[in-house]
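A reminder before we start the practical. When you read a complex entry, don't treat the lines as separate problems. The point of joint prediction is that each chain is placed relative to the others, so the output describes one connected object in space. Small molecules and nucleic acid strands, if listed, are placed in the same frame. In the example below there are two entries. Take a minute to note the order of the lines before looking further.
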Amino acid sequence: MTSTGPLGTLTQEASISTETTVSEVAVQLEGITKRFPGVVANRDIHLTVQKGHIHAIVGENGAGKSTLMKILYGMQRPDEGEIRVNGSPVTFHTPGDAISAGIGMVHQHFMLADNLTVLENVILGSEPKKGGLGLDFAAARTKIKEISDAYGLGIEPDVLVEDIGVGARQRVEILKVLYRGARILILDEPTAVLVPHEVDELFENLHGLVREGITIIFISHHLDEVLKVADAITVIRRGTTVAEVEPKSVTARQLAELMVGSELPSPETRESTVTDVVALQVDDLTIGADGERKLLDGVTLTIHKGEVLGIAGVEGNGQAELVEAIMGIRSSTGTITLAGVEITSWTTLRRRDAGIGYIPEDRHRHGLLLEAPLWENRILGHMTEKVNVRGWWINRRGARADTERIVKDYDVRTPGIDVFASALSGGNQQKLIVGREMSGEPKLLIAAHPTRGVDVGAQAAIWDHLRTARAAGLAVLLISADLDELIGLSDWLKVIHRGEIVAEFDPAAVTPEQLGSAMTGAGEEA
Amino acid sequence: MSSSFTDRLLGRVKLTGWVSLAAPLLAILFAALVTAIVLTLTGNPVIDTFITLVDYGSQPRSLVLIINNATTYYLSAIAVAVGFRMNLFNIGVDGQYRLAGLVAAAVGGAVTLPAPFHPILIILVAMLVGAAWAGIAGVLKATRGVSEVISTIMLNTIATGIGAYLLLEHWGVQLSANDIGTKPIEPSGQVSGLALIPGTQTKVFGLIFLAVAVGIGFHVLLNKTRFGFDLRATGRSEQAAVASGVNVKRMVVYAMLISGATAGLIGMPQLLGESHTYNLNFQAGLGFTGIAIALLGRNNPIGIAFGALLWGFLDVSSNILDLHKISPEIVTIMQGVIVLSVVIAYELAHRYSVVAEQKRVSRQLAGAASTTHKEGAAA
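Here is the predicted structure of the whole assembly.
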């Protein structure tokens, strides 16, 4: 073990932090701006993290939290602004630079090899050498034990990672970054994978870490957890920091309001087209076995012809699973009835054939064949439609003609239908998908984040198409993280949280507090 | 944009325009250059060696042998390509065609049927055995998630063992002092050769037409049918295929069955056209040649034809090198370098063409509609 290892510095800094005042700054971000083509992901971010604090960063999905963390961890470079670590300005080109500045990141999804031991996982990539070639396992083992004891992590170095639980794996991840000398830890949604008692254990560990002088940046959108554990909270909304608050002085409701924004868009006044004919009936839909955390827990919902049902919720609370269960992509228990016919046991293709259109959340992975021409993409998912096939044969002429129709009617900007889907902009790709899924007179349209990542022009066009189809009697299940979209389009809103429908609202009457509280699970306490 | 390297390697992404021709030509030139360096280093004359290869390779008899070799290689490469197009690595073509050839030869030798039915029966048996052997790997993957790479490699070894057992213990007859084979197929089951090339007694395999038909069938199946669409969609993006309602597990089994049935045909031109028996000289290793040629031809039926002919030319013409005291392995080096540099050349060409296409589209759009199309800040 070398004298410059983390434990060497640990004792020094721990003593310093007890002597000096708490106002020592570990990380400071000044005016950070990051643009991507067509989008400003971060705009004029200001963030000051005190040394030895657990500093929470909260915001809705898509608010810009992850871009900010990528900038701080050297995975992205800001277009403007300055990062200061321990008072001195730094420029990170790679995560390696961030690590050597003492910043470590624990990702939401663990990056561990199951078939290696804890020890092997920890030293992977920074192996202690012995005599030039050999690995010094003994030294590594000692060091891991020392770190584990110093911070109360309780890690056994010689067990296989596949044999330990989720909470312990997370502690291994934390140990891994501490082993590399990190003094500032970024934890990205650390509680997303944990069950409640593991969350409590994690929080104890975090308190142990800050007692020893480690600084923690904690990203989350579970407000109750944030209020429980954080020393300071920064709220991000629409790419910029909107507030810095102390957890003692705010309630979950106030925090939710800061996150969502104090003004919710008012739904456009329009005539209701909701009929009393049921298009989709879902009863007691559940994914996940007894005893473990259920991804979807007893979801029941009804959509009538001409009705748009919006599902609000912070991402990762079961929306994707709900969609996949209705599409028959993921197996579930419960019953699904489409226009009076039970389709629970049907295959995905049969469900599509029976009149379910599907705009998937991730158009690149689920909605398109990027390296195929547009007219082949017209066939995708509609391999039984008459325009696309004649018996066993692909109806090339029909599919091409119908692709031309979609390009014209849905204003897909493309030089032709023979270009690859990858050559179109996101908005035009999405217009093609919307046009495709509206073809063949669907009874139900499942639209998951239909305007995510598209430009404003395409967004307005897609909304118009959805409204027109609704007026013509289409039932729509709308999943979105965009409250403008949800409130502007939906006839009725349901809120999903941890796989359960926890609240429902009339979009015309809902208040931001109600929606924010329900979405973030703060409802019970506030 | 987001196609993976293997997608491009396996030709699931189309290359368009001149790059699709220029890439392999440049690769062959590069391979020739590397070969020239190797020749120089080993103290052999460069120019003379190449001239010798071309001279010998263009003699009438050589041409026939090249075509016959290429016919076999072509079938093998198509068998591999069926799997490649949907991301299945059927490494087991080798075992499939050897086992199929043995069983088909045994059945063909055991029965006598009127002329058109006898070879048809033999070919059908070969396809069935090939399909069944490949199907094992398909079913294992679909039901148990076993990697088809592992299972087909193991099935190759098992096929070798079963083949030896069946030949030596059951079906083999003494053909000559040191050769054992299945009972020779009666003339009614043979497919006679064609005297296509003047100036030689050697004949082109009659089953060259089978290879042509398989090539056409491969193209039609993949590009014109719903099944082919599902197969290609699965190969390009399994997740998109699942979301679109393709039963991916069933596609895995079907694709392996088709690949195996095609593999069963590999031994047929030789068996029915020349040897008429499955003996100890039955050519092994063609399945692996097929993998190289499928890569070379980017799983395209025309490209594979060129690849198979090139491979055949190199194989046949290398026979002359021994006479000039040059190691024929020089050609193996050349074949290896060709495959490697073709892969690299395709990758470079692909990157170029993707950027070119995106530029072209945005240029055309900017020209056509500069009115309302603007991307607003979504933040």
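Discuss with your neighbour: The mean pLDDT of chain A is 84. What might explain this?
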